[in-house]
Design goal:
Layout (H helix, E strand, L loop, with lengths): L1 H17 L4 E2 L14 H11 L12 E4 H7 L6 H17 L1 E7 L5 E7 L1 E6 L4 E6 L4 H10 L5 H5 L4 H13 L7 E6 H9 L12 H19 L3 E10 L2 E11 L7
Parallel strand pairs: 1-3
Antiparallel strand pairs: 2-6, 3-4, 5-6, 7-9, 8-9
Protein backbone atom coordinates (compact mmCIF):
# COMPACT_ATOMS: atom_id res chain seq x y z
CA UNK A 1 0.00 0.00 0.00
CA UNK A 2 2.83 2.41 0.86
CA UNK A 3 4.48 1.72 -2.52
CA UNK A 4 1.27 2.58 -4.39
CA UNK A 5 0.85 5.72 -2.30
CA UNK A 6 4.43 6.80 -3.03
CA UNK A 7 3.86 6.37 -6.78
CA UNK A 8 0.71 8.49 -6.57
CA UNK A 9 2.58 11.20 -4.67
CA UNK A 10 5.42 11.13 -7.21
CA UNK A 11 2.86 11.79 -9.95
CA UNK A 12 1.31 14.58 -7.86
CA UNK A 13 4.68 16.27 -7.37
CA UNK A 14 5.52 15.88 -11.07
CA UNK A 15 2.18 17.47 -11.93
CA UNK A 16 2.95 20.43 -9.69
CA UNK A 17 6.33 20.91 -11.29
CA UNK A 18 4.89 20.74 -14.80
CA UNK A 19 2.72 23.75 -13.93
CA UNK A 20 5.37 25.81 -12.20
CA UNK A 21 8.90 26.53 -13.40
CA UNK A 22 10.22 28.15 -10.24
CA UNK A 23 12.00 25.05 -8.90
CA UNK A 24 15.13 26.21 -7.08
CA UNK A 25 17.88 23.77 -6.18
CA UNK A 26 20.89 26.09 -6.17
CA UNK A 27 21.48 29.80 -5.84
CA UNK A 28 21.86 30.73 -9.48
CA UNK A 29 18.47 29.14 -10.23
CA UNK A 30 17.02 32.37 -8.86
CA UNK A 31 18.42 34.15 -11.91
CA UNK A 32 16.13 31.92 -13.99
CA UNK A 33 13.05 32.16 -11.81
CA UNK A 34 11.42 35.46 -12.64
CA UNK A 35 10.34 35.27 -16.26
CA UNK A 36 6.94 36.69 -15.30
CA UNK A 37 8.34 40.05 -14.21
CA UNK A 38 8.27 43.17 -16.36
CA UNK A 39 11.40 45.26 -16.88
CA UNK A 40 10.21 47.73 -14.24
CA UNK A 41 9.47 44.96 -11.73
CA UNK A 42 12.89 43.42 -12.39
CA UNK A 43 14.56 46.74 -11.58
CA UNK A 44 12.59 47.18 -8.37
CA UNK A 45 13.60 43.65 -7.35
CA UNK A 46 17.24 44.45 -8.17
CA UNK A 47 16.96 47.45 -5.86
CA UNK A 48 15.72 45.13 -3.09
CA UNK A 49 18.58 42.68 -3.68
CA UNK A 50 21.08 45.55 -3.49
CA UNK A 51 20.31 45.89 0.23
CA UNK A 52 21.55 42.37 0.99
CA UNK A 53 24.85 42.27 2.88
CA UNK A 54 27.19 39.34 3.44
CA UNK A 55 26.57 39.33 7.20
CA UNK A 56 22.75 39.30 6.91
CA UNK A 57 20.67 36.51 8.39
CA UNK A 58 17.34 35.09 7.25
CA UNK A 59 15.55 37.18 9.90
CA UNK A 60 16.86 40.47 8.46
CA UNK A 61 14.21 43.12 7.83
CA UNK A 62 15.04 45.67 5.13
CA UNK A 63 13.72 49.23 4.92
CA UNK A 64 13.81 51.37 1.78
CA UNK A 65 12.29 54.71 0.87
CA UNK A 66 9.94 54.78 -2.09
CA UNK A 67 11.38 58.15 -3.11
CA UNK A 68 14.87 56.62 -3.30
CA UNK A 69 13.59 53.96 -5.70
CA UNK A 70 11.84 56.59 -7.82
CA UNK A 71 15.01 58.68 -8.06
CA UNK A 72 17.15 55.63 -8.80
CA UNK A 73 14.89 54.78 -11.72
CA UNK A 74 15.15 58.33 -13.06
CA UNK A 75 11.50 59.21 -12.46
CA UNK A 76 9.95 62.37 -11.07
CA UNK A 77 8.27 62.28 -7.66
CA UNK A 78 4.69 62.40 -8.90
CA UNK A 79 1.82 60.54 -7.31
CA UNK A 80 1.62 58.43 -10.47
CA UNK A 81 5.18 57.14 -9.98
CA UNK A 82 4.59 56.41 -6.29
CA UNK A 83 1.63 54.33 -7.41
CA UNK A 84 3.75 52.65 -10.07
CA UNK A 85 6.36 51.57 -7.51
CA UNK A 86 3.65 50.36 -5.12
CA UNK A 87 2.11 48.30 -7.93
CA UNK A 88 5.54 46.83 -8.70
CA UNK A 89 5.85 45.61 -5.12
CA UNK A 90 2.36 44.14 -5.31
CA UNK A 91 3.42 42.30 -8.46
CA UNK A 92 6.60 41.06 -6.78
CA UNK A 93 4.49 39.66 -3.98
CA UNK A 94 2.21 37.88 -6.47
CA UNK A 95 4.68 36.74 -9.12
CA UNK A 96 7.63 35.35 -7.16
CA UNK A 97 6.44 31.89 -6.21
CA UNK A 98 9.32 29.54 -5.43
CA UNK A 99 9.37 25.75 -5.30
CA UNK A 100 12.14 24.10 -3.27
CA UNK A 101 12.93 20.42 -3.55
CA UNK A 102 13.66 18.94 -0.12
CA UNK A 103 14.59 15.61 1.48
CA UNK A 104 13.49 14.85 5.03
CA UNK A 105 15.49 12.99 7.68
CA UNK A 106 13.57 9.77 7.04
CA UNK A 107 14.55 9.90 3.37
CA UNK A 108 11.17 11.09 2.12
CA UNK A 109 11.34 13.65 -0.69
CA UNK A 110 9.01 16.56 -1.17
CA UNK A 111 8.48 20.06 -2.48
CA UNK A 112 8.18 23.19 -0.34
CA UNK A 113 5.93 25.79 -1.95
CA UNK A 114 6.89 29.24 -0.76
CA UNK A 115 7.61 32.69 -2.18
CA UNK A 116 10.53 35.07 -2.43
CA UNK A 117 9.19 37.45 0.21
CA UNK A 118 7.93 36.63 3.68
CA UNK A 119 6.13 39.98 3.67
CA UNK A 120 6.17 43.45 2.10
CA UNK A 121 4.79 46.46 4.00
CA UNK A 122 4.08 49.84 2.41
CA UNK A 123 3.75 52.61 5.01
CA UNK A 124 2.02 55.94 4.51
CA UNK A 125 5.25 57.90 5.13
CA UNK A 126 6.73 56.38 1.93
CA UNK A 127 8.66 53.66 3.73
CA UNK A 128 8.72 50.11 2.44
CA UNK A 129 9.67 47.21 4.69
CA UNK A 130 10.30 43.73 3.42
CA UNK A 131 11.70 40.43 4.55
CA UNK A 132 12.75 37.54 2.35
CA UNK A 133 11.30 34.11 3.00
CA UNK A 134 13.46 32.23 5.51
CA UNK A 135 13.46 29.19 3.21
CA UNK A 136 14.66 31.22 0.22
CA UNK A 137 16.99 33.68 2.00
CA UNK A 138 20.07 31.37 1.94
CA UNK A 139 19.82 31.16 -1.86
CA UNK A 140 19.57 34.95 -2.08
CA UNK A 141 22.64 35.44 0.11
CA UNK A 142 24.66 32.95 -1.95
CA UNK A 143 23.46 34.51 -5.20
CA UNK A 144 24.45 38.00 -4.06
CA UNK A 145 27.82 36.80 -2.77
CA UNK A 146 28.94 34.60 -5.64
CA UNK A 147 27.05 35.61 -8.77
CA UNK A 148 24.94 38.75 -8.45
CA UNK A 149 27.74 41.29 -8.50
CA UNK A 150 26.21 44.02 -10.66
CA UNK A 151 26.18 47.68 -9.80
CA UNK A 152 22.66 49.10 -9.71
CA UNK A 153 23.65 51.69 -12.32
CA UNK A 154 24.64 48.86 -14.65
CA UNK A 155 21.30 47.11 -14.29
CA UNK A 156 19.30 50.31 -14.59
CA UNK A 157 20.90 51.01 -17.98
CA UNK A 158 19.29 47.92 -19.55
CA UNK A 159 16.05 48.73 -21.35
CA UNK A 160 14.61 45.35 -22.37
CA UNK A 161 13.27 42.82 -19.89
CA UNK A 162 14.79 40.08 -22.03
CA UNK A 163 18.23 41.70 -22.07
CA UNK A 164 18.03 42.11 -18.30
CA UNK A 165 17.17 38.44 -17.90
CA UNK A 166 20.01 37.40 -20.20
CA UNK A 167 22.45 39.63 -18.32
CA UNK A 168 21.57 37.87 -15.07
CA UNK A 169 21.82 34.44 -16.68
CA UNK A 170 25.21 35.36 -18.07
CA UNK A 171 26.50 36.46 -14.70
CA UNK A 172 25.06 33.43 -12.91
CA UNK A 173 26.59 30.98 -15.39
CA UNK A 174 29.99 32.64 -15.63
CA UNK A 175 30.64 32.08 -11.90
CA UNK A 176 31.93 35.60 -11.70
CA UNK A 177 31.61 39.08 -13.10
CA UNK A 178 30.48 38.64 -16.72
CA UNK A 179 33.26 36.31 -17.81
CA UNK A 180 33.16 33.52 -20.38
CA UNK A 181 29.96 31.51 -20.07
CA UNK A 182 27.87 28.84 -21.76
CA UNK A 183 24.13 28.81 -21.21
CA UNK A 184 22.44 25.64 -22.38
CA UNK A 185 18.85 24.50 -22.10
CA UNK A 186 15.86 23.00 -23.83
CA UNK A 187 13.44 25.24 -25.70
CA UNK A 188 11.02 24.87 -22.79
CA UNK A 189 13.69 25.92 -20.28
CA UNK A 190 14.72 28.97 -22.28
CA UNK A 191 11.11 30.05 -22.61
CA UNK A 192 10.47 29.58 -18.90
CA UNK A 193 13.49 31.77 -18.05
CA UNK A 194 12.31 34.63 -20.28
CA UNK A 195 8.53 34.25 -20.54
CA UNK A 196 7.50 32.71 -17.23
CA UNK A 197 4.01 31.31 -16.73
CA UNK A 198 0.42 32.36 -17.27
CA UNK A 199 -2.10 33.16 -14.52
CA UNK A 200 -2.76 29.44 -13.99
CA UNK A 201 0.91 28.63 -13.52
CA UNK A 202 1.28 26.98 -16.92
CA UNK A 203 4.50 27.74 -18.85
CA UNK A 204 4.07 30.27 -21.65
CA UNK A 205 5.03 28.88 -25.04
CA UNK A 206 5.94 30.67 -28.25
CA UNK A 207 6.87 29.27 -31.64
CA UNK A 208 10.63 28.71 -31.77
CA UNK A 209 11.13 31.24 -34.58
CA UNK A 210 9.18 33.95 -32.81
CA UNK A 211 11.05 33.29 -29.55
CA UNK A 212 14.45 33.50 -31.19
CA UNK A 213 13.62 36.67 -33.13
CA UNK A 214 11.77 38.63 -30.46
CA UNK A 215 13.58 37.41 -27.32
CA UNK A 216 17.03 35.97 -27.96
CA UNK A 217 18.05 38.18 -30.89
CA UNK A 218 16.74 41.32 -29.17
CA UNK A 219 18.49 40.57 -25.89
CA UNK A 220 21.80 39.61 -27.55
CA UNK A 221 21.76 42.77 -29.67
CA UNK A 222 21.18 45.04 -26.68
CA UNK A 223 23.86 43.36 -24.56
CA UNK A 224 26.20 43.44 -27.56
CA UNK A 225 25.80 47.21 -27.68
CA UNK A 226 26.29 47.55 -23.92
CA UNK A 227 29.30 45.19 -23.88
CA UNK A 228 30.97 45.66 -27.29
CA UNK A 229 34.04 43.64 -26.27
CA UNK A 230 31.93 40.49 -26.02
CA UNK A 231 30.87 37.92 -28.62
CA UNK A 232 27.50 36.13 -28.41
CA UNK A 233 27.21 32.91 -30.43
CA UNK A 234 23.87 31.08 -30.41
CA UNK A 235 23.62 27.45 -31.54
CA UNK A 236 20.24 25.93 -32.32
CA UNK A 237 19.83 22.36 -31.07
CA UNK A 238 17.63 20.18 -33.28
CA UNK A 239 16.13 16.71 -33.42
CA UNK A 240 15.55 16.24 -37.10
CA UNK A 241 13.88 19.45 -38.24
CA UNK A 242 12.43 20.24 -34.81
CA UNK A 243 14.12 22.88 -32.64
CA UNK A 244 14.53 21.44 -29.14
CA UNK A 245 16.89 23.92 -27.45
CA UNK A 246 19.69 26.45 -27.63
CA UNK A 247 23.28 26.79 -26.50
CA UNK A 248 24.58 30.31 -26.06
CA UNK A 249 28.34 30.83 -25.81
CA UNK A 250 29.41 34.22 -24.48
CA UNK A 251 33.08 35.10 -24.84
CA UNK A 252 34.96 38.30 -23.95
CA UNK A 253 37.01 39.55 -26.91
CA UNK A 254 40.66 40.38 -26.30
CA UNK A 255 41.53 43.63 -28.02
CA UNK A 256 45.16 44.03 -26.93
CA UNK A 257 47.50 44.03 -29.92
CA UNK A 258 51.14 43.02 -29.70
CA UNK A 259 53.16 45.41 -31.91
Amino acid sequence: MAFVQNKKMDKTISSLLSRQNYLVTQANDLARSFGNLTTFEHKVLDYCFSYVKSEDTSSQIYTVQMLSIIRHLGLNSSGKNYQRVAEAFRALNNKTAIYLRTTYKNGMKGIIMTSLFDYIAIVEDGRIEFQFSKKVAPFIFELKKNYYSFKLSELSGVRSKYALTLLKLWNANSMGKLKKATIKGSLEEWQSWFLGTDDEGKPKKWAAGRFRQRVLNVSMKELGNLYPKTAFFLTTEKEGRKIVGYTLDITPIKTTLNI
